[in-house]
Amino acid sequence: MHEQKSASFPDFEAHAGEIATKGFTLLRDVIAPELVAELREGIYEHFERLGVPFGTNVFLGERTRRLFNLLGRDRLFEQIPLHPAILPLAEAVLDRELLLSSLTAIEMHPGETDQPIHADDGSIAVQRPHTPFNCTAIWALTDFTPENGATRVVRGSHLFDRRPRSGEQPECELATMRAGSALVYHGSLWHAGGANRTQAPRLAVVVNYCAGFLRQEECQLLALPRERVADFDPRLRAMVGYGLYRGLFGHVDQRNPATFVDPDAETEMIWDRLR
User: Fold this and answer.
1) Any bridge partners for residue 209, and if so which?
2) Within-domain flag for 225
3) What are 118-171's pLDDT values in tens digits?
4) CA within 20 to 30 Å of 38's CA: 73, 79, 128, 226, which one?
5) By residue range, what is the domain housing residue 184?
6) What's the domain count of the chain?
7) Within a domain: residue 40?
8) What phi and psi values does residue 93 have, to the nearest 5 degrees?
């Protein structure tokens, strides 16, 4: 597996502040070129071997291929959720006991049209604005340009008091970035993929983190065999659900579910702390 390295480490406080105020931030050139190349190769190998088709509607993209459940497919992808320049930002938005909600590769082909504007937490029916439930990182594995469908974002929309309406076309700005960069944003941010008017595909990995008390977008406990999880980094085990949130949520008969893959894992329940 490729060693996690970053070409440059960002100013953490400044980027965390941008997510709080603008709803998003751009981390430029933080993913090592060698890792970018390795991920591209691995993703395309799976796309071709599995015969992944285009989406069936305009949201998924009728000229876009999506490979879900990356963690369950190859050990190469285990390093993505733990990236040392990106995970701390997600923790700043949520907290250290966050979960990995989903991990997906997205390849947008020439001829793809604008995706509808949406928010990643749009399926959660609560009053807005609210405390963040999600934090998403889009890894650019090819350049994101105005011509090939760079993600469109609505600055400050994570503070709006509603979700976007169907067909709404608010003023957007483009998150253009070179391959090896990442767009990190608050789960309430209004955003969407752009249209690809070039002759080449645009490739990305989308890492969706969620608060530890939420149900994950992909059911990681069923998607990943226990023997695979046993080989994960302990932090990644907890992020897919083999851990406790606040010493309570996720327990199995008063046991930390981590003990199912690591008998030496400790269990400390909330009531133990209250003595």
Assistant:
1) 100, 135
2) no
3) 999 999 999 999 999 999 999 999 999 999 999 999 999 999 999 999 999 999
4) 226
5) 12-211
6) 1
7) yes
8) -75, -40
Summarised one tens digit per residue, pLDDT across range 15-71 is: 999 999 999 999 999 999 999 999 999 999 999 999 999 999 999 999 999 999 999
Residue 110: asked if its preceding bond is cis (omega within 30°), the reply is no
Would the pTM count as exceeding 0.90?
Answer: yes
